[in-house]
Amino acid sequence: MRNKTTLSLLVLTTFALIGVFYITSNINKMRASKSNQISFVADLIDSPRRDEETGQYFIFFDNVKAFNKVNKKDLASLNQGGILVTDVPADTPIEKKTKVIVTLKRNFATTNSLPPQILGHGVVSVKFR
C-alpha cells in the first residue's frame, strides 16, 4: 500500500512540475515576442488610398507618439510622418484625423523616400479609433 501511495505522489509531483515548466516557457515566449515589437499612435493626415493591384491601402500618418521611451528611439525615422502600406478591414470607416495604433516588428523596413513608407511585412497590427 505504501508503494502505491509513494508512486502516486511521485506521478502527481511529476505532472505538477511539467505543468509549471510549460507555463513558464509560454510566459517567456510571450515576453520575447512583445520585446520584438514596437507600438505607436499617430494621426491620419489623409483618407487611406487603396492600391487596385494589391488591394492594400496607403495610410498617411503624422504626429507619431511612441508608447514608451525605448520605442521612441526606434521610431525616429517617422518623426516627420510616414505612409503605412497594409491591409485594412473592409468594415472599418476611416477618415482624416482618425487615430491609428500601429504595432510593428522591431526590425521593420522603410523606404528611403520622404515620407518613409513602412511595408506590410513589417506590420503586426493596425487599429483605428
How would you describe the overall organization of this protein?
About 30% of the residues lie in helices and about 30% in strands. With about 130 residues, it is an alpha+beta fold. It has two helices and seven strands, in the order αβββαββββ. It is elongated, with a radius of gyration of 23 Å. Strands 1, 2, 3, 4, 5, 6 and 7 form a seven-stranded mixed sheet that branches. The chain has helices at about 1-35, 70-75, and strands at about 35-45, 50, 55-65, 80-85, 100-105, 115-120, 125-129. The chain has two domains: about 1-35; about 35-129, OB fold (Dihydrolipoamide Acetyltransferase, E2P) (Beta Barrel), CATH 2.40.50.
Quick overview:
The protein is α+β, with helices and mostly antiparallel strands and 129 residues long.
CATH architecture of the largest domain: Beta Barrel
- Total strands: the figure is 7
Multimerization status? single chain
Q: Using only CA atoms, what is the Rg?
A: 23 Å
Structural domains: how many: 2
**What name does CATH use for the topology of the largest domain?**
OB fold (Dihydrolipoamide Acetyltransferase, E2P)
SSE class: alpha+beta
Overall 3D shape: elongated
- What level of helicity do the residues show? 25-40%
Q: What is the helix tally?
A: 2
Kindly estimate the percentage of residues that lie in beta strands according to DSSP: 25-35%
The biggest sheet amounts to: 7 strands, mixed
- Would you tell me the overall average pLDDT? 78
Properties at a glance:
129 residues, elongated, OB fold (Dihydrolipoamide Acetyltransferase, E2P), alpha+beta, 31% helix, 7-stranded mixed β-sheet
